[in-house]
């Protein structure tokens, strides 16, 4: 008979790595195991997203940003002569604020330069900051961009928002995780996961489990107009094509899938037993586990001919501005450094490296550039289907 410790170890291996042809039998983890598995604490933020289209939402954000930008510029960010304080760098980031602050503090400790963080909310990741950057294009406030995903970064790069990232750390990043024109590069890999209640029973370990009739009305995902969920939806449309992707989301609608205000809310709702299964990020599941949530995390679609999961790098870029400073370049180099990637791993925000790649993780075979192209239409299309409003 297997000992309790051996049984725990076996279950952890199955849940994080998968095994060919396996199904997953989920049982309650001992208290000593809470928070184990593939890393990363998220930042719970319970907010619902208004049921408006992505294009309308972007127009609303852009208008609001234009109205407040002049106040922001005339406030504490700028010195009296209209320039930025020489010892300060302005960083726009959609990385969770507590994580970004720890990285900024490490940079300040190393260089003596301070960092002014401008962050995004859970509900608007990363669209809010992207729209702000667009609104400020003629007179940018930010000096450095650090996105929690790659898709909006690619869009911004294609719109001419960034200048070449001529920093030492750029050469250390694998080619698949950086722009060939040197406009952005990735640091750390986040992973899309299934959050599964300990009461869910046996599952197959695929996103197709979201369609299981046993879970009808107990399935969750973030409204797919923002952040990594928008990227994941776009990746499915890029990989499957419109017809197959539409069919998947129609079946998800038929199974009573519930859209919530963010990935952290998915993990919370599964962890507290309100829902049984959901699609979210690795860091949000860990955060829910650490808060006492009763849930497991499974890397989906790792077996046989399965499609794999989506690995998403955080991304760094230098804002295109005439007065770009050496201090900003130092910050960009630090954000891409091995030190920052290790810090993100230690904080359980990422579960892979842009230096060594995803390792044994089976990832979706679709380029980030193609996902970014699908981002223009796929998230809204999927949201319409899930809302019962056929595109």
Q: What is the SS-derived class?
A: alpha/beta
Distance between the termini: 55 Å
Biggest sheet descriptor:
10 strands, mixed
Rg (C-alpha, Å): 21 Å
Provide a concise account of the structure shown.
The chain has 391 residues and is α/β, with parallel strands linked by helices.
Element layout with pairings:
Blueprint: H1 4-17, E1 24-25, H2 54-73, E2 88-93, H3 97-111, E3 114-119, H4 127-135, E4 144-147, H5 151-158, E5 162-163, E6 185-197, E7 202-203, E8 219-222, H6 227-240, H7 242-254, E9 258-260, H8 263-271, E10 277-281, H9 282-290, E11 295-298, E12 311-319, H10 326-335, H11 338-346, H12 368-374, H13 378-386
What would you note in describing this structure?
The protein is an alpha/beta fold and 391 residues long. The protein has 13 helices and twelve strands. The chain has helices at residues 4-17, 54-73, 97-111, 127-135, 151-158, 227-240, 242-254, 263-271, 282-290, 326-335, 338-346, 368-374, 378-386, and strands at residues 24-25, 88-93, 114-119, 144-147, 162-163, 185-197, 202-203, 219-222, 258-260, 277-281, 295-298, 311-319. The longest helix has 20 residues, at 54-73. Mean pLDDT is 83; it is low at 1-58 and 60-82.
